[in-house]
Amino acid sequence: MRTRQRTCLALIALLAGCMPAAAWTVEESEGFFYTYQPDETGEYYLTLDCDIDFGFYSISIEGSEPWEPTTSYAPQVPTRFIVDGTPLPETVLQFTNVENTVAVMISEAQDGFSELHEALAAATATVDVSYFDKAMRFDVTGIADAFAAIDTLCWG
Question: Could you tell me whether strands 57-66 and 101-107 are parallel, antiparallel, or unpaired per DSSP bridges?
């Protein structure tokens, strides 16, 4: 379901000629509450999710590249975040399969999660993300409200 909605967002952006800043989407699916925002191209999504049963958070960058089960993905993905123009220390994410597409993710059990979560929640304008040969920019207007909504849904 998430993939179809994201495809529609990208199609709307193509028809409009640009990707306007959209409100953060907050949804529930398959045991998770999650919020996401597309990047400027509509190809990548910055996502915060929370496992409904355990209240466990993760942050991911989801793309459109198909997950290949026979591919050997790097065990660590050194990732750079620049939040409102301020670089954060390099954060290590991991490749993961999200609905048969490649994503990079960090969970709250991993080093660097809290710092990244706090920086993102305080962001007001843009977040630039880069890893390996990938680079993307997200308009994060409204991110604090989206993160607060996930907290409320997950923890009541």
Answer: antiparallel
Give residue 140's identity as a one-letter amino acid code.
V
Four-residue CA torsion sign, 65, 48, 155, 26: negative
What is the tens place of the pLDDT at every residue in 11-54?
333 333 334 446 899 999 989 999 999 999 999 999 999 999 98
Sign of CA dihedral 102, 107, 112, 116: positive
Encoded tokens for 1: 């379901």
Evaluate the CA torsion angle 138, 151, 65, 106 in order and state its sign. Answer: positive
pTM: 0.84
* Closest by CA position to 28, among listed 5, 7, 62, 61: 5
